[in-house]
Write a structure and sequence with these properties.
By secondary structure, this protein is α/β, with parallel strands linked by helices. It is 37% helix and 23% strand. The chain folds into three domains: 3-240, 3-Layer(aba) Sandwich (Rossmann fold); 249-311 and 315-429, ANL, N-terminal domain (Rossmann fold, 3-Layer(aba) Sandwich), CATH 3.40.50; 443-540, GMP Synthetase, Chain A, domain 3, CATH 3.30.300. The strands form six sheets. It has a nine-stranded mixed beta sheet, with helices on both faces. Strands 16, 17, 18, 19 and 20 form a five-stranded antiparallel beta sheet that branches. A four-stranded parallel beta sheet has the order 4-3-5-6, with helices on both faces. Helix 14 crosses helix 15 (481-493). The radius of gyration is 24 Å and the shape is globular.
Length: 542
């Protein structure tokens, strides 16, 4: 039984259990198994009636919702290939994805996306129009082979142009049970139904993996509906755990610290002394005063901060970009362990995950069972091989060939350090692709070219932001600040929020091979430039 068949069986076997619940502020909108199954059957009929056949690609554009989940399952059950597209994708990128994937049908949730897809060579239907027409398909899911592609997820390459990652049935049938077993070992103390809060868009590989593993096991997944109210909706959902990116955890930490700043001064003092005592204990330097302070701080402050995250929260899982060790330790201090995972779209969202009870701050865990890893001795690049590795880029054979070396090893582009136990630590990028703290992949070169080409006086530009909450830029030349400010704003207007430059630093020092900031063929030495302007960069993130 493959994962699609498994999910459909679980829907019918959960008559009274909400499997998907939308969280609208303080209101819960639950959907039980049979109701979700009915929506899937209706959507299957609508898709089939619009000519969708096994192997056809269907673009699905919309925010996370119960109807989105049902449409995705319907596409898969009909033997189709889901092409999930970020609803706030830049118009040019969306056009490229639609032209490249050539979907039989575009399913979207609002008029804006419908208009954006209007020029594509495919029919367009509103998401809600898949339902309520009375017709249902009750057939079993269409048969598939393990090598059949079930989804094409587009990710940014070094050039900035989206590339379609082909995920097969075999990829998912391997990854889902492996990740599920690893997570359930982490949350072994949770009895009965698991409540999972979820806000990451389903167009991301790891996000959809979390959805499917929840449905496969019959757990309850709670979907956030307002990005500006995530903290409150999380409290409403009362989850046992959730998947997050570092940027969310940083905001969560800042929110809790702001709340604490409004408490009585005595509690604030105890908080500061408790943190100091906790750090001293971690370093093996616990003093007599620390021994007296720590239990008091734990009982009167730390536990209260943890309860703000909900009474049932067992842990957090961080992925998409490395989480800072200090932030990871902060959550550990208040009693909420953060397990780090690492994976790419090309590896079905998973390569490694911290093991239960074996968190090492600043590291991204051990490779999951069945996934082989190797570290290139010359470049320190992480190479991956296994049933989680994708089938290649859609219609890009040259890019596919370039992504693999002899023996089927996939080049991740990440430089790592591996200790004797096999635990991994991300130390940088072998390629220039930036992975922001939000989890988005951003190619810096196209943005840097725009800065140089459109702003008078800018000779070179370096975009910074790997693992950071937003992008910044170092620009060299004799450009005036007002020109740079105006040019950056103009460039940002045409970009999605995650690839906009928020701050910049101007230097009149030229970038040359002689000062080590350019190679002899005049390419940017990014590491050297970032090291030279380290203080300026840190000031932009202060």
């Amino acid at each position: 039984m493959n994962f699609i068949e498994r999910i459909l069986d679980v829907l019918d076997a959960s008559p009274h259990k909400p499997l998907v619940t939308e969280v609208d502020g303080t209101t819960l909108l639950p959907t039980v198994g049979p109701e979700l199954a009915r929506l899937v059957r209706e959507a299957r009929a609508a898709l089939r009636g619009r000519g969708v056949r096994p192997g056809d690609r269907v673009a699905l554009i919309g925010a996370n919702s119960t109807l989105w989940v049902a449409a995705d399952l319907a596409i898969l059950a009909e033997g189709g290939v889901t092409v999930p597209i970020y609803p706030h994708q830049a118009a040019d990128a969306q056009r490229i994805i639609l032209e490249d994937s050539e979907p039989r049908l575009i399913v979207c949730e609002d008029e804006r996306t419908a208009q954006a897809g209007g020029g594509a060579p495919a029919a367009t239907v509103h998401l809600r129009d898949l339902y309520g027409h009375g017709e249902q398909i009750t057939d079993r899911a269409a048969p598939r082979d393990v090598d059949d592609v079930v989804s094409i997820i587009y990710t940014s390459g070094i050039s900035g142009e989206p590339k379609g990652v082909r995920q097969t049935l075999g990829n998912l049938d391997y990854a889902l049970p492996v990740v599920t077993d690893a997570i359930e070992a982490i949350v072994a103390d949770v009895e009965g139904d698991h409540r999972i809060f979820h806000y990451l868009p389903f167009c991301f590989a790891g996000s959809r993996l979390m959805l499917w593993l929840s449905l496969c096991r019959g757990h309850s997944i709670y979907l956030a509906t307002h990005v500006d109210a995530l903290f409150d909706e999380m409290a409403t959902a009362r989850p046992h755990y959730l998947l997050a990116v570092p940027a969310f955890l940083e905001r969560l930490k800042a929110r809790l610290e702001r709340d604490l700043a409004e408490r009585p001064r005595g509690l604030q003092l105890l908080w500061r002394r408790g943190m100091s005592a906790w750090r001293n204990r971690a370093q093996g330097k616990l003093t007599f005063f620390d021994k007296a302070t720590l239990p008091l701080a734990q009982r009167l402050v730390f536990d209260g901060v943890r309860r703000r995250l909900g009474p049932a929260l067992t842990c957090l899982i961080s992925s998409s970009a490395p989480l800072g060790a200090d932030t990871q330790r902060w959550f550990e201090m208040i009693g909420v362990p953060v397990y780090q995972a690492y994976g790419l779209t090309e590896t079905t969202g998973i390569v490694s995950l911290d093991k239960a009870g074996r968190i090492e701050p600043g590291r991204v865990g051990h490779p999951v069972h069945g996934c082989e890893v190797r570290v290139d001795p010359d470049t320190s690049e992480l190479l991956v091989r296994g049933p989680n590795v994708f089938a290649g880029y859609w219609r890009k054979p040259d890019d596919t060939a370039a992504a693999f070396s002899d023996g089927g090893w996939f080049h991740t582009g990440d430089r790592v350090e591996r200790d004797d136990s096999g635990s991994l630590r991300i130390i940088g990028r072998a390629k220039n692709l930036l992975v922001a703290a939000s989890g988005y992949n951003i190619a810096p070169e196209p943005l840097e070219r725009k800065l140089v080409e459109t702003i008078a006086g800018v000779q070179h530009a370096v975009v910074v932001g790997h693992g950071r909450p937003y992008l910044t830029a170092i620009v060299s030349g004799d450009a005036r600040r007002e020109d740079v400010d105006r040019g950056v704003k103009r460039i940002n207007e045409a970009l999605p929020h995650y690839s906009r430059v928020k701050k910049f630093y101007i230097t009149d020092e030229p970038f040359t091979p002689d000062n080590g900031m350019l190679t002899h063929n005049r390419k940017l030495r990014r590491d050297a430039i970032e090291a030279i302007y380290d203080k300026a960069i840190e000031a932009m993130y202060a």
